[in-house]
Amino acid sequence: EENYRSTGHILAAASGIIARNESRLGKTLFTAADEGEKLRVNGYWDGADEARSVSSEIESLQAAGVNLSKVAVLVRAGFQTREFEERFIAIGLPYKVLGTRFYERAEIRDAIAYLRLVTQPSDDLAFERIVNVPKRGLGTASLQAVHVQARASGKPLMAAAIDLVTTDELRPAARNALGGFCKDIGRWREAAAGMHHTDLAKMVLDESGYTGMWQADRSPEAEGRLENLTELVNAMQDFDTLQGFLEHISLVMDGDTDSEQGEVMLMTLHSAKGLEFDTIFLPGWEEGVFPSQRTIDENGAVGLEEERRLAYVGITRARKQVHLSFAGSRRIHGQWQSSIPSRFVQELPPETVIEDIAQGLGGGIPFGRASQARLAGGGEFGDARRGGYGPGWRRMAARQEAGSEPSFTAQGNAGGFASGDRVFHQKFGMGNVVHVDGDKLEIAFDRAGHKKVVAGFVSKP
């Protein structure tokens, strides 16, 4: 069957991945187009580095006169758009999210409303948004009574509610519910002075019942909303204070990216089916992210094959260029975790790709069908002295060959680091170890400040 969209290298790369699916029908695709450019596989230190580099590549395309509407960034899960949105806004790169932008999603607006009300009790819009979310049994009549009290007293809604619960204007059930809400806001406001703002956010979302509401929800969207809430807390860690983060959100929400040069499309792989673009960026190709660990845990081999079909879809959305990337570490659930490239990266035919891996992440990836054998046997790509990932990759290959899924949690403190050690990091330079937690190090760098890094990226001078 002929493919009229993609070049030869793009089609060959996608076919090399999808051929691993045992349930796939024996359909062979071909194209009359020329071979075109090879896929570029990029490795970065972390998610922020990945977002910066992808943005820079897109800016280069824009400077060369490429209409940005012909460029797309495709991610596995909705929460991954946040880091790219932040970067696009910071550099003024026009973009459009197919669906809803991260900070405009309902669950993110709800969470931010809680935080705004904690920091500024006079915020009436925030009060109205979350006073009955999750549902507290406050009906229309009760909320109207709060508004009447606010107008009569000239006070904000929160202050009016506090006054109202001391009277008999409301039914006992509504009075207790509203009173409990007001006490919670007051308690969180007092706690904010003595705790980190990310811990405060977790406390508010958990104790308000908001997280529990989505955990109990059985709709297909619920899991994605929980992932978005986790990503929101991750985003807060880039700011020194809650107020600074909320001010940043205000700027982001006011951003206008209209452009005569078009807008970069940012979407999930599921949303991309049926679409096509000249240039495609595929970030986040790491084990546990893509393929999704949850999908594999829930559906086993069937789930893995569905993930592989998504990889095929992502690559074949491109007419001319594919930029595929992974990061050496990501912040997941508030903790830095080391990661390894997706098994789908290994499945790419070697003749279809060009590597560009950040120094220190490893100089080569075992591509193609024979990769597992080469890794296990210490062949060309599995030999660290020749630029491969070395013994760690061979251990992973051996586990896969034995039929067990690899564990993606780094083990121990292989470098033997201790607090006070003077160390060197390829990206952040010289610094002193402040705290050691397994293979995670907190380091006070001379120029970059305090950072949490993976021990594997650090050496002793």
Set down the secondary structure blueprint.
Elements: H1 8-18, E1 39-46, H2 47-63, E2 71-75, H3 81-91, E3 95-97, H4 106-119, H5 124-130, H6 140-153, H7 157-164, H8 172-192, H9 197-207, H10 210-216, H11 222-236, H12 242-253, E4 264-268, E5 277-282, H13 293-315, E6 318-332, E7 335-338, H14 343-346, E8 353-357, H15 371-377, H16 391-401, E9 422-425, E10 429-437, E11 440-445, E12 449-454, E13 458-459
Descriptive account of the structure:
With 461 residues, the protein is an alpha/beta fold. It folds into 3 domains: 8-94 and 257-369, 3-Layer(aba) Sandwich (Rossmann fold), CATH 3.40.50; 104-231, PCRA, domain 4 (Orthogonal Bundle), CATH 1.10.486; 422-459, no CATH class. The chain is 42% helix and 17% strand. It contains 16 helices and 13 strands. Strands 1, 2, 3, 4, 5, 6, 7 and 8 form an 8-stranded mixed sheet that branches. A 5-stranded antiparallel sheet has the order 12-11-10-9-13, with no helix packed on it. Helix 4 packs across helix 5, helix 7 (157-164) crosses helix 8 and helix 8 (172-192) packs antiparallel against helix 9. The longest helix has 23 residues, at 293-315. It is globular, with a radius of gyration of 25 Å. It starts with 7 loop residues before the first helix and ends with a strand. The model is unreliable at 368-412 (pLDDT under 50).
